[in-house]
């Protein structure tokens, strides 16, 4: 599915909340990148070192907090899979969630192949190990987690457990998880 970036943008734009409203200007992936960098800023890695915070700093002076140029289609597809898996964490896809997903397809002008991909992903969502495999560093891990967190309002025990297990598998620091929750609850 080559439209992963458009789908992530559409799903993120569709999310309600003042912190998310900025996506109308920035785009969904840009927002995810910005949230991930902000959440990682000042965090210490699970090992107790400052490595995650150092890795979270921009690689070049010209890079902005919302620079999404490092996010390729494969990572966008993983973000999308994380969003679907988070949506399915409670084992149910209610009518509102289904409408949101399919509305995002329409908004992103994604055709039948994208709909078929989404149907397969809903029928058999990625597990946490699949989502965490291939993640190459703390920034990418935070972006994948941010995508999953943006996709849902964790109002069930299963959704909260999914997010905790995903954060653990991705090695996202607890301080960063708390920052995501704080930003997204505004």
From TrEMBL:
This is DUF533 domain-containing protein. Keywords: Membrane, Transmembrane, Transmembrane helix. It comes from the Bacteria. The chain crosses the membrane at residues 20-41. The keyword Membrane applies. Residues 50-72 are annotated as: Disordered. It comes from Methylobacterium komagatae. It holds the Pfam family DUF533.
């Amino acid at each position: 599915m080559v439209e992963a970036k458009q789908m992530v943008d559409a799903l993120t734009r569709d999310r309600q909340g003042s912190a998310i409203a900025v996506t109308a200007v920035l785009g969904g992936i840009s927002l995810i990148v910005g949230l991930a960098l902000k959440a990682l800023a000042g965090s210490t890695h699970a090992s107790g070192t400052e490595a995650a915070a150092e890795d979270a700093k921009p690689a070049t002076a010209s890079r902005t907090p919302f620079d999404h140029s490092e996010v390729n289609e494969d990572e966008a597809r993983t973000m999308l899979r994380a969003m679907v898996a988070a949506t399915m964490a409670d084992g149910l896809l209610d009518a509102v969630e289904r409408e949101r997903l399919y509305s995002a397809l329409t908004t992103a002008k994604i055709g039948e192949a994208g709909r078929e991909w989404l149907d397969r992903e809903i029928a058999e969502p990625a597990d946490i190990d699949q989502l965490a495999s291939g993640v190459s560093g703390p920034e990418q891990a935070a972006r994948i987690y941010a995508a999953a967190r943006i996709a849902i309002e964790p109002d069930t025990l299963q959704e909260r457990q999914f997010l905790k297990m995903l954060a653990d598998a991705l090695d996202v620091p607890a301080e960063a998880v708390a920052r995501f929750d704080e930003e997204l609850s505004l």
